[in-house]
Amino acid sequence: MTLVWLILIPFIGGLLCWQAERFGDQAPRWIALGTMLLELVMVLGLWVSSDFQLPAEGAASVWTLEWQADWIPRFGIQLHLAIDGLSLLMIALTGLLGAMAVVCSWKEIVRRVGFFHLNLLWILGGVVGVFLAIDLFLFFLFWEMMLVPMYFLIALWGHSGSQGSSRIGAATKFFIYTQASGLLMLIAILGLVFAHHGATGEYTFAYADLLNTPLSETTAWWLMLGFFVAFAVKLPVVPLHGWLPDAHAQAPTAGSVDLAGILLKTAAYGMLRFALPLFPEASQAFAPVAMTLGLIGIFYGAILACGQQDLKRLIAYTSISHMGFVLIGIYAGTELALQGVVALMVAHAFSAAGLFILSGQLYERLHTRDMRQMGGLWGRIRGLPGFALVFVAASLGLPGTANFVGEFMVMFGAFGVAPWVVVIASAGLILAAVYSLFIMQRVYYGPPVEETPLAGLDRRETILLFGIVALVVFFGIYPQPLLDTSAGAMQVVQQSVQQAAVMTGGAQ
Amino acid sequence: MSDVANHGVLTTLLAISPLILVCLTVIVVMLSIAWKRNHALSAILTAVGLNAALLALLFGWTLGSVDVTSVLVVDDLSRFGGVLVLMSTLACVTLAHHYLEGYEGPRDEFYLLLTSAAAGGLVLVSARHMTTLFFGIELLSMPLFGMLAYTFRDRGALESGIKYMVLSAAATAFLLFGMALLYAVTGTLDFAELGAALSARGSDPWLLAGAGLLLVGLAFKLSIVPFHLWTPDVYQGGPGPATTFLATASKVAVFLVLLRLFQSTLAFHENWWHDLLGFIAVITMLVGNLLALTQNDLKRLLGYSSIAHFGYLLVALVVNQGLAVETVGIYLVTYVLTTLGAFGVVTLVSSPYIATGGTADASPLHHYRGLFWRRPYLTAVMTVSMLSLAGIPFTAGFIGKFYIIAVGVEAHRWWLVGSVVVGSAIGLYYYLRVMVTLFLHEPGMQRRDATHDWAERAGGMVVLGVATLVILLGLYPTPMINWVNWVAG
Question: For chain A, does the N or the C end have fewer beta carbons within 10 angstroms?
């Protein structure tokens, strides 16, 4: 039941926030914060009390904790939740970033506070559902469901864009991109289910059953593409990234934090959990294409980031660049690279969240996100620029930060499989340094536009930023707890990739 | 006929009792109007009669399939259709009561028309012979002319009524001509016998022409592209309760008779026939969705959206095997519930009726701007309906869409499945636009609101109940699936 509660808590908390609005604006904020902290505590409790080593050969289940109930027997659909090291890390991340999102919008959101937190918490509830569901139908449901509150978050509390692009337009674009690609995944899921039905005569959406569906090569290829496109839109992979810069630029800070910190990770999670293990041979064959797309993403994101005037758009493009590394790591498929992907996902969640929170705080003070109107802020705001320097350093992958660990492991792990890809990708690191320093240069150094000092960081903001910095540095120096937790789950993925490699190798 | 002899008179009467009760209701309401005009009394009598018919229908389920004369058959499918038709009619009665309170002309006759149309729907879902098909369609459509033009001092309503009448007449002409051709070649009008004749000499050009004309006639009623041109105007102009009936009960009944035709009569095995139908399905979804994109009028938008939804439904008919019948059943249930929710809100916001001379209902989208901050629960209903129409998970609409895609994938009709996806993606744009309009907080022009006590009125309760059902069936669709599965099986 713990798993059910993990999903239900944000949903119930959201409803409470909505109703608590009648007791003033503070009530929903505290309730939302309490809800997310409760979620976090539950996950951490689970983390401490569980063992994430792979069970011995032949054990009944690879999951640490499992829960299931019949739901739609007509199609063998079950409410089937399970947790392993990977999902646990992701849910912990969700709880943490959820709490941060609540804190960082404490002063930013002043209108319709209750409804705002309802949407915020429901997104997080949906995300937790995505990380827990191992019935494909249920997974799809959560995958699509989390779009609705995100849509409202952008459309109702977003900022209107600089060049006439409206927040509603951005929200709609986000929704249509993800929903349409999601339907492709639904088709692929159904194709898989019917293939399984054809082979065994029974309907099932259970992950464990579908893993061993016999598929012809072409079918597997098409179904894999269906999954890949859905995840690629969300990751995002160039050329399916069109929604991301707009959505980030228009979203409120909390929306950006959730979007970059967690929603993008659902895509990587989906690839690790579903796309690779369900279609190992097809994925193996597709890996060169995916890695090339990852490379394109790294450079495309970095180059476009250099040319942005809007601070949040810039950070959004850097996300595309970082996700390129994630994609390469996933399709390299060695255990080292996969572990690197996990580390990089966590690290990117922190550094991107930090940067977005900072740009939200700048916006509260300057009422603009246009970098041409910034400059010379180092002397004008107490405290904030120092934190910016840390997150920028993390974003460019400076040793000592968690991002370095992740990127290094991805490159190291992928080198044996695709040396040239790694060689080219490492050139992308230089670009990362360029755009990161651009941020520092344009925003904080240079001649100030005005001399008047701006409000410094208050206690809430300082604690929040300190927390993230501490995590970035801690996991930069000592990433082992992360890696231990996800090791079992990654071994499973790696084994399926390895088997596929052996089989395709044998066929040749 | 030998079939009739198999059942006792009593069984037959019991099986057909819903229809009899509905007709009795018409007579009772008419007499009560003749005796004394009382709006509330008429509405209550109608509701009681329809409820009795619904109960009779549910009790009759134990009888199994009963042939009532050689032209009507009461089986699970027709009872399923009957439940949907009667439920939508009941919803329309409750909505109409509130709506018509503001109308200064005679109000009571609306219930007469509504109930007669419901009787037509009941005949139609039980039809197994061309005569009953024709009779049912006409009995369904004729009262609708009156209902659509009921508030005839509004130009919009009058236009809507006349348009529907003219196009219905055209459709009837097609229908009759088609039947005449079929009869000329085969000498029978019974669905099953026609089916046998068609499969024996399916390539006879006269037979094909007859079947084609028949389909065109039905396609008019279902507003399938290219016979959809009347839909937006009629939807926009008609009074709320009348449009609600048109969008739900009338379409369900016609679609079910089409399904029956496909099962028995039109089950052609040539590929080109399926390809042609598939093509029509594809353009119906695409045209419906594309034309809805630019609408600024909620009722027009819903009209176009209903075109698109019947495009999706056609997928099941094109496949016509495996899950197809179950899909039709599920989709119709979800469609009816969702449409009742959406049109219910429109009608509630437009209630009570206010004469304007133009279009009386609150149909321009800007009327709904910021509705959430004034009527949060009513807006929640509308939001749920829009999400369900768009097929978002945790609403009943998603289960419908899931079935449509499943039936397409099962039959490997990738083009159709692809078009459903494209259609849904386009559709999202306008559903989201409606949704976000409800939540925006900027001064709208000409606001109109539901009355403060909307939720305590029967209409309000029905709408809230419908929205709850949409959510519940989205969360736990098993009862609905079992029911429909049993009907289809």
Answer: C
B436 and A187 within 8 Å at the Cβ level: the answer is: no
- Taking CB atoms and an 8 Å cut-off, how many pairs form between chains A and B? 76
What residue has token string 């246009």? Answer: A370
d(CA A46, CA A51): 9
- In whole angstroms, what is the distance from residue A107 CA to residue A110 CA? 7
Measured between alpha carbons, how far is B234 from B157 in angstroms, rounded to an integer?
8
Q: What is the tens place of the pLDDT at every residue in B192-227?
A: 888 888 888 767 888 888 888 999 999 999 999 899
Q: How far is A180 from chain B (nearest CA, A)?
A: 5
Q: What is the pLDDT at residue B60?
A: 86
Confidence band, pLDDT 50/70/90 cuts, at residue B488: confident
DSSP-assigned letter for residue B366: G
Nearest Cα to Cα of residue B146 among B79, B241, B229 = B241
Shortest distance, CA B153 to any CA of chain A (angstroms): 39
Nearest chain B residue to A116 by CA distance is B439
Residue B322 contacts A where some CB pair is shorter than 8 Å: no
Most confident of A416-420, B123-127, B265-269, B409-413: B123-127
Contacts of B476 in chain A (CB under 8 A): 71
**What does the longest C-alpha to C-alpha distance in chain A come to?**
75
Distance CA B195, CA B207 (A): 11
CA separation for the pair B204, A233 (Å, rounded): 51
Residue B462, Cβ neighbours under 10 Å: how many? Answer: 21
Shortest CA gap A507–chain B (Å)? 29
- What pLDDT digit, counting tens, does each position of B387-442 carry? 999 999 899 999 999 999 999 998 888 999 999 999 999 999 999 999 988 888 76
Q: Are the beta carbons of B267 and B320 closer than 8 angstroms? A: yes
The pLDDT score that the predictor gives to residue A495 is 85
Distance from CA of B365 to the nearest CA of A (A): 16
Radius of gyration of chain B (CA): 21
Q: Which of helix, strand or coil describes residue B98?
A: helix
- Looking at residue A494, its pLDDT comes to 87
In tens, the pLDDT along B352-365 reads 887 776 667 888 88
Place of tokens 């890695």: A291
Question: What pLDDT, on the 0 to 100 scale, is given for residue B358?
Answer: 65
Cβ atoms of A342 and A329 within 8 Å: the answer is no
How far, in whole angstroms, is CA A352 from its chain's centroid? 10
Q: Return the residue of A nearest to B390 by Cα.
A: A179
Sign of CA dihedral A331, A333, A337, A339: positive
- pLDDT single digits (tens) A38-95: 999 999 999 888 877 766 555 556 788 888 899 988 888 999 999 988 999 999 999 9
What are the residues facing A77 on neighbouring strands? Answer: A72
- The structure tokens 């109409």 sit at B96
In this prediction, residue B312 carries a pLDDT of: 95
* B228, two tokens: 């959809």
Would you give the DSSP letter of residue A160?
A: P
Rounded to whole angstroms, the Cα distance separating B5 from B7 reads: 5
Q: Is the dihedral of CA B196, B202, B206, B210 positive or negative?
A: positive
Three-state SS letters, A340-385: HHHHHHHHHHHHHHHHHHHHHHHHHHHCCCEHHHCCCHHHCCCCHH
Chain A residues whose beta carbon lies within 8 Å of the beta carbon of residue B483: none
Parts of chain A with a pLDDT under 50: 506-508
Per-residue CA distances from B101 to A249, B96, B97 (Å): 49, 8, 6
CA gap B33, A323 in Å, rounded? 72
Those residues whose C-beta lies under 8 Å from the C-beta of residue B396, and which sit 6 or more positions away, are B333, B334, B337, B338, B388, B469, B470, B471, B473, B474, B477, B480
Q: State the residue for tokens 């279009």.
A: B359
Kindly determine whether residue A145 and residue B440, on different chains, have CB atoms separated by under 8 Å: no
